[in-house]
Amino acid sequence: MSEPVPKSYASNSQPLPKWVFWLAVGCVISQMAAFELPVWRDPNQRAERLSGWLCGRYADFLPFLPALLLVPLLAIGLRDRPQRSRWRLKTNEILRNQPGDSVGVAWMMGAVVFFTTLLASRWVGNQFAGLPPAYHDEYSYVFQAETYLAGRWSFPSFEPRPELFDQMHVLNEGRFASRYFPGVGAWIAPFLYWGDPWLGHQLAQALTALLAFWIGRELSCAGVGLLAGLLVAVSPGLLLFSNLLLAHHPTLVGLFLFLFCFLKWQRTSSVFLLTAAGVGLSYAMLCRPMTAAGFGLPFGVLFFARQFQAIRKASVRDAVVHVLALGTPIFAGLCIAAYANAQITGSPWLSPYQLYTDTYTPRHVYGFNNRIRGEQNLGPKVLKNYDDWAENLTPSLAARNAASRMENSFRWTLGIIPLSLGLLVFVLSPGHGDSRWWQLLFATISLHLVHIPYWFTGIMGWHYVFESAPLLILLFAESTRRLMADDRTPTGRTMAWTPILLLAVAVPSNLWTVSPLWPGRLPQGMAEIRFPREKYAVFHDRVDQLRDGTPAMVFVIPDQADRHIDYVVNSPDLSADVLIGRAKSPDAAEDAAALFPDRIAWRFDAHTGEFKRITKNPPARSQ
């Protein structure tokens, strides 16, 4: 079984000019020196390195020094080696394989990528077995999934005192509903019903890797797809986020379905593929609209440019068919979003997300001068402690945030050094591969640009631009193919070995801690996530011990010094054996306890960690 590929889309495997390679290597060595030399010249920083982690907390540069020093030595040492080893012949065969060759082998490669990725994600998830979610947002998405499983868009607020159940990222203005867009809750719901909500995100990680494989194969060859898929499988940031119940992985599935189908449509003009691309982008829009817009913008420009060309050539019917094929699923998604808005806020034009921001966190508004604009709209229900967290976005802060997001994208995806080298090689060799590769780079840039007008860099410094991670991996995989295109000269063989040497450093430093050299990136991230998960687990375990099977109402007095741990989490119908409410003071908790005569009431001070029983006698048990 084979699929013919037009000659114009075949991968160009001409050798790279030597200057491209040496310029890229020189740039990353300069990048390393610019960071490391000031550290070792400063006595305090030098002493800290020598007494702690030799390569620093993030180990971005120093571990790669031996590999980069080997590069010029390889150029000399490989001068007298045979031009073609058996390994190189096999590598060339894989890397020059065209997309239409051996579809059966490609499916086997895809299966390897899928199951490797799923197993890796499950392994990380097992390290958190039995622990609840870590972030406010995760609880809101679970709340949304529970609402959908009940067959509803929202629940009524607690009528006597709705503010008792104000929950982070949950709208509580007459209707009790998650602030977030409906796609993620719909993704989580079936897995929550089956008892393993994280499985859905782990499958999304595996599907993203599989789609990355097919995209790499479509644009270059099966070898590029295989490398990209396996690097997605071991990317520390992707592994961590596949075990957080956030919007990113469901969004990735939609975006990468769109990307694969759109790229293949450009080659085949298949209306079915264009419709599938629209479905993917529409679903991503129902998860993270700003991300979907930023990701899809370059493709939209190319799409409409192609349709205008068709109209100029008197192919109006084809242009209309293609616009309808892509636009109908997107319009359907907009209708779903409008209907959900109307069911929760009463207006199809007002989203729960916007209403929540306006009501509770006006300083968190998108755009420059967010604090100044937000302070003009302060209302009685503003969450002052959380709202005050926002910094006022100025051009200088926006520039620092953009740089931080890019830095952390590189760091958590694969590594700053290998991705810097890969992108430099890619940009400096425009005529050495399918021109559609540039669309991936433009999508990455666009995704970063649309998030510049936001004051916060994101979880781990990058979560707003998280969806660029597999794009960066694909570009690195293509750069690796270009570096391996020539094995007939010493420089060519050196180029072929360089990405292998960098990966031999990047993957271990990402996955494992090597004391006292570096703390592994993945273990670092797991420790960061474990901390809030364990705090929530300790709280819920303590509540279960105290109530001893009796229905309970726990009033939490928040810790004003901690914005990121909030114990007020409930099911949307407020019918669970344990309800968690919010109280401003001990007296307020005791006054509100009378509203729950059939439950034992407790007060919990989040600052001190102390519980105090409010109800003197346990409620009578029903017979």
Keywords:
7 strands, 623 residues, 4-stranded mixed beta sheet, mainly alpha, 3-stranded antiparallel beta sheet
Please describe what this structure looks like.
This protein is mainly alpha-helical and 623 residues long. 60% of the residues lie in helices and 5% in strands. The chain has 24 helices and 7 strands. The protein has helices at residues 18-41, 43-51, 65-77, 86-95, 103-126, 136-149, 182-193, 197-219, 222-234, 236-241, 248-268, 271-287, 289-312, 316-345, 352-360, 370-374, 384-387, 395-413, 416-427, 437-450, 469-483, 490-511, 521-547, 586-593; strands spanning 155-156, 170-172, 175-178, 552-557, 578-582, 600-605, 610-613. Strands 5-4-6-7 form a 4-stranded mixed β-sheet, with helices on both faces. A 3-stranded antiparallel β-sheet has the order 1-3-2. A hairpin with a 4-residue loop joins strand 6 and strand 7. Helix 5 packs antiparallel against helix 8 and helix 8 runs parallel beside helix 21. The longest helix is centred in the middle third of the chain and has 30 residues, at 316-345. The model is unreliable at 4-11 (pLDDT under 50).
